[in-house]
Design a protein that fits this description.
alpha+beta; Beta-clip-like; three-stranded antiparallel sheet; 6 helices
């Protein structure tokens, strides 16, 4: 669940992206997994969905290190594009946040959030109107997917610069 103001627009890295709707200072918590907002699926649950639904989810999902489930963001976070030099990162879990970072949400808002899930934080100052990017390898490693089901996002990544 995004906790900063964003908008989705054409352009950016991949033709459509998520852009900052406000100035976002370095260190700001930008996204947290919220089970009443974002969707989580086991591999078995995904396999039971109709093919068209699975294809859609395959484009947007990432594998949670904490739960082992595939997470689909229901907001603009699913349009974060890949960059080898991203402006966000997922360095820690909610329990590892500083008091100032935790203060971005009320205790009631934090109460439903899984403390074992990683959060997305601004790696640098992000200007209003700047595209929000992440390193897909940091979010969900290709090795975490069965070889028979390579994630579509990794087939679309540009080569890592030398």
């Amino acid at each position: 669940m995004l906790i900063i103001d964003t908008y989705i627009a054409a352009g950016g890295v991949a033709g459509i992206g998520t852009f900052a709707g406000e100035f976002i200072p370095k260190g700001t918590v930008m996204w947290v997994y919220h089970p009443k907002f974002d969707q989580a699926y086991t591999r078995e649950e995904l396999d039971r969905l109709p093919l068209a639904s699975r294809k859609h989810i395959e484009v947007y999902k990432f594998l949670s290190d904490a739960s082992g489930k595939y997470i689909v963001c229901l907001d603009g976070a699913r349009h974060f594009n890949h960059s080898w030099e991203p402006n966000t990162y997922c360095p820690c879990t909610i329990g590892e946040l500083t008091p100032a970072q935790r203060a971005q949400l009320t205790e009631d808002q934090w109460s439903d959030v899984d403390p074992h899930e990683k959060v997305t934080i601004a790696l640098k100052d992000i200007q209003k109107g700047e595209e929000i990017t992440c390193d897909y390898e940091q979010v969900s490693l290709p090795s975490s997917f069965p070889p028979s089901r390579p994630p579509p996002i990794f087939s679309r990544l540009p080569a890592r610069p030398n």
